[in-house]
Amino acid sequence: MIDKHLILHAGTHKTGTTAIQDSLQIHAAFLAERDYCPAVLHRDLRDLHRAFNPKAYGLQAADLDLHALRRDFRHWASQASAGNIIISGEAISHPFWENWGQDEAVGPFLFSGFARQTLVLYVRRQDRFIESAYQELLKHGLAETFAEYCSSPAGDMRRILDWHAKLANLAALYPEAKMILRLFDRVREKGDVFRDFLTSLGIPELPATIISSQENTSLSAAQMEMLRLCNLHRGREQRQILLQLFAKGAALPAISCPHRRFLDDGERAALIAEYHPANAMLFAEHGLGDGHALDQWERITAADRRQESQDRDTDEALSLSAIDRLCAEAVDAEGSDPDRS
């Protein structure tokens, strides 16, 4: 038994994880003064990260020696000068999301044997999660419309959005851990997820969150449609130009979005309406969505598909022309910038 407190921050996805991880590393000295040793799984403990998601590293489960990984991790933790070890990584909750990685028992096996364990989880309302997930995929090349994304069998939205079942799964995986559940939507209103994370651990005198990743830049509906069209008809180079312009807050041309449909109030209510009664019981006091009711999405997406068939070619041609002009102007401006010569 290691006489230390192990704190696992497991995300989840789209809840400010990168901001927390960047801030943990930037404020490592601040934390060390308060007897905390932070580590980001995929940056500082890459061998452990491989165990959660071996396929991402081109490995098979048989390539991994979990006993050796556990021994090395326990040695590292026992040698740490702090009494509280913080490990942050969404891979810890991969079974929570997609059952990625080798096995659901990887985490409990690797992280067992500590005097105390705390599992910190952030979740967000399902309607906001699905829009945020769609936005992130657009930044990486997705060319589907929102309706196509939501109705795609590959997305398996029923499983991904069932918070109650997945939280129950993690509670069963880490029965000895104290679980701290934080509602990202409420935290985001206050504007500082790192401050909230440390407050949940009882750490006072908090520094500000450091947010440095372009990946987390929120986009407008028009910007998302520009990215989608760029992904569909252009390529990575122009997508990167657009993302840089979006991050700078550049003025953008108006484009037509006839087949872009995001959730209106009625659909948003349908998405978080009654589906899993236990979700309502678990989250009612927090104001979190109580399910996902995706049966109703077929009706919504069918109407979208009918709308998409009207004037698509003309609208896309006009929008692509605007995108090409915008990217060309950005390239010309970069070439004429005297500071770059």
CATH architecture term of the largest domain: 3-Layer(aba) Sandwich
What's the helical proportion of residues? 40-55%
SSE sequence, one letter per element? EHHEHHHEHHEHHHHEHHHHHHHH
What is the CATH class designation of the largest domain?
Alpha Beta
According to CATH, what is the topology of the largest domain?
A: Rossmann fold
How many domains in all?
2
Q: Biggest sheet: strands, sense, closure? A: 5 strands, parallel
- Number of distinct helices: 19
Give the termini separation: 60 Å
Approximately how much beta-strand content do the residues carry? 5-15%
Beta-strand segment tally: 5
Task: Give the overall pLDDT as a whole number.
Answer: 75
Q: Report the principal-axis shape.
A: elongated
Helix-strand category? alpha/beta
What's the arrangement of strands in the largest beta sheet? 2-3-1-4-5
Low-confidence parts: 96-103, 211-215, 274-313
Radius of gyration computed on alpha carbons: 22 Å
Features:
single chain, 341 residues, alpha/beta, Rossmann fold, 5-stranded parallel sheet, 19 helices, 5 strands, 51% helix, elongated
